[in-house]
């Protein structure tokens, strides 16, 4: 095997990262480890600092101790490589309520001190690791304190201000539009980075390279050769300690509107003129605009929801959704959603896209399946014919790509075997302990917006789902719970494909149907 080319490491420019929600789970479990991994691999500048902001009364030293514990717990190499700083500590903390204007004045003063002590040149990256009802108030507070440079990404002195917004971004089209309006009243679109951590996964990012930099795939990536596409986002866990939040969201809002639709855009988009920020995002928006808005009759057939009951998973009995902590006893929130979607353009006309996501399924697995059409002529007897070619792109737990095709078995007779070629990211030295946020945070620092959602992308995705949301709200489910924990969802989801002469491709090693 030829040796791999040396990768040139480009460090981000000097900056201060302000994290609202600094004492929360996302910061400690994902953001701090991601920053450590970036530092360890040479992607952070020496002129870098963190200011954590939350309502908890912590000292700088306590915040640093929590960060060190988080790195030790979540990072593979947790040796002291200078991330926390010694003579000049990098991590700072500010206690304050987000609704209090005094918090932002004190933050402004602290930023001036940190810019001076760390040489960060006035560059600020704000990360909102907080509930969505705090997004707009924080933006207004920052603007009121004069912390947001007007007129775009760059201030007259060359410094920049950028803000990362976590999901969920709205809960329907109207609320998404309202939130966009509130944020854009405080800053320019170029300063807003709506993050979807799925787009930080190597396999998802590789979809662009896989499609457009390999001449063997793009010519057959269309309705002439593809029979259908499946996207499965399966979770074996229940709602854990998120019952209060999840019961207001459900699978459609929590996974389909963001993760699933972003993956679909990368699968279905047209080749961009370049891999620049807006060229890629423009093509993704076109996919969302081309998605058919189904009418009520089609939705009754092509949109399936479910809720898990008690069942067996991993050899243990687990509770049903309505028995989880902080979930309403008669909750009608779906923990499973499956849709049949159509993209009405020249490339994909008449090719169905089947998507499903659910909790308490047999395994944690995210995969994309491109099912190709069968050969047009059966040269062998029917009983010896095998399955059509299939490309499977697995996003988690392993990051791998697998192509299935047929080969003749050795010996007399025409007996075929199903064989595969597979590539794993472990072959490239994939960091198994990466959080998935490393690339995204680095992109924010260097101003690369390609993997982030634009305002029109968010609104188009909600517009696609509006008919489903409206129908499900108008017709409460009568059969909940309708699938047992440890199964692959309600029978209606299987029937949705069976009616089309197809079936779900379950992940390998988890009760797969081949």
Secondary-structure topology with pairs:
Blueprint: E1 15-20, H1 25-40, E2 48-54, H2 60-74, E3 91-95, H3 101-118, E4 124-128, H4 135-144, E5 161-165, H5 173-184, E6 192-194, H6 202-212, E7 226-234, H7 243-246, H8 250-268, H9 277-290, H10 296-302, E8 303-306, E9 308-309, E10 311-313, E11 316-318, E12 336-342, E13 352-358, E14 365-372, E15 390-396, E16 400-408, E17 416-424, H11 438-446, H12 455-474, E18 483-484, H13 491-498
Parallel strand pairs: 1-2, 1-4, 2-3, 4-5, 5-6, 7-13, 9-18
Antiparallel strand pairs: 7-14, 8-12, 10-11, 12-13, 14-15, 15-16, 16-17
Helix pairs in contact: 1-2, 5-12, 8-9, 8-12, 9-12
Index terms:
514 residues, alpha/beta, Rossmann fold, Dihydrodipicolinate Reductase, domain 2, 2 domains, eight-stranded mixed sheet, six-stranded parallel sheet, 13 helices, 18 strands, 32% helix, globular, disordered N terminus
């Amino acid at each position: 095997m030829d040796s791999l080319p040396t990768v040139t490491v480009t460090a981000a420019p000097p900056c201060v990262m302000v994290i609202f929600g600094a004492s929360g789970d996302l910061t400690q479990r994902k953001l701090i480890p991601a920053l450590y991994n970036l530092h360890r691999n040479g992607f952070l500048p020496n002129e870098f600092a963190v200011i954590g902001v939350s309502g908890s009364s912590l000292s700088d030293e306590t915040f640093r101790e929590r960060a060190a514990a988080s790195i030790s717990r979540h990072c593979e190499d947790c040796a002291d490589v200078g991330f926390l700083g010694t003579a000049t500590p990098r991590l700072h903390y500010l206690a304050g309520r987000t609704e209090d204007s005094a918090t932002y004045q004190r933050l402004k003063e602290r930023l001036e001190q940190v810019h001076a002590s760390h040489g960060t040149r006035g560059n600020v990256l704000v990360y909102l690791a907080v509930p969505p009802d705090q997004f707009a108030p924080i933006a207004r507070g920052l603007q009121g304190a004069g912390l947001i440079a007007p007129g775009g990404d760059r201030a007259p002195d060359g410094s920049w201000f950028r803000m990362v917004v976590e999901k969920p971004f709205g809960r329907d089209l109207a609320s998404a539009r309202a939130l966009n309006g509130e944020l854009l009243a405080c800053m320019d679109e170029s300063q807003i980075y709506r993050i979807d951590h799925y787009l930080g996964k190597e396999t998802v990012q590789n979809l662009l390279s896989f499609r457009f930099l390999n001449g063997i795939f793009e010519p057959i990536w269309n309705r002439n050769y593809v029979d259908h596409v499946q996207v499965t986002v399966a979770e074996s866990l229940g709602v854990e300690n998120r019952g209060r939040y999840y019961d207001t969201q459900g699978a459609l809002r929590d996974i389909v509107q963001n993760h699933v639709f972003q993956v679909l855009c990368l699968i279905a988009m047209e080749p961009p003129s370049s891999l620049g920020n807006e060229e890629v995002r423009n093509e993704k928006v076109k996919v969302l605009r081309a998605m058919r808005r189904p009418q009520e009759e089609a939705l009754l057939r092509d949109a399936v929801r479910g809720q898990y009951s008690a069942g067996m998973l991993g050899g243990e009995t687990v509770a049903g959704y309505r028995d989880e902590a902080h979930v309403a006893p008669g909750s009608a929130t779906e923990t499973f959603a499956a849709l049949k979607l159509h993209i009405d353009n020249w490339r994909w006309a008449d090719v169905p896209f089947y998507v499903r996501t659910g909790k308490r399924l047999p395994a944690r697995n995210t995969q994309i399946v491109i099912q190709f059409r069968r050969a047009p002529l059966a040269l062998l007897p029917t009983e010896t014919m095998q399955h059509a070619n299939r490309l499977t792109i697995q996003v988690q737990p392993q990051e791998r790509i697998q192509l299935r095709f047929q080969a003749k078995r050795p010996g007399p007779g025409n007996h075929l075997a199903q064989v595969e070629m597979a590539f794993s990211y472990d072959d490239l030295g994939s960091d198994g302990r990466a959080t998935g946020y490393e690339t995204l945070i680095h992109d924010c620092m260097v101003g690369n917006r390609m993997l982030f959602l634009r305002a029109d992308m968010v609104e188009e995705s909600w517009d696609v789902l509006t008919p489903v949301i409206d129908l499900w709200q108008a017709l409460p489910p009568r059969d909940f719970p309708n699938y047992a924990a440890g199964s692959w969802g309600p029978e209606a989801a299987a029937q949705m494909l069976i009616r089309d002469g197809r079936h779900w491709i379950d992940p390998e090693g988890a009760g797969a149907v081949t």
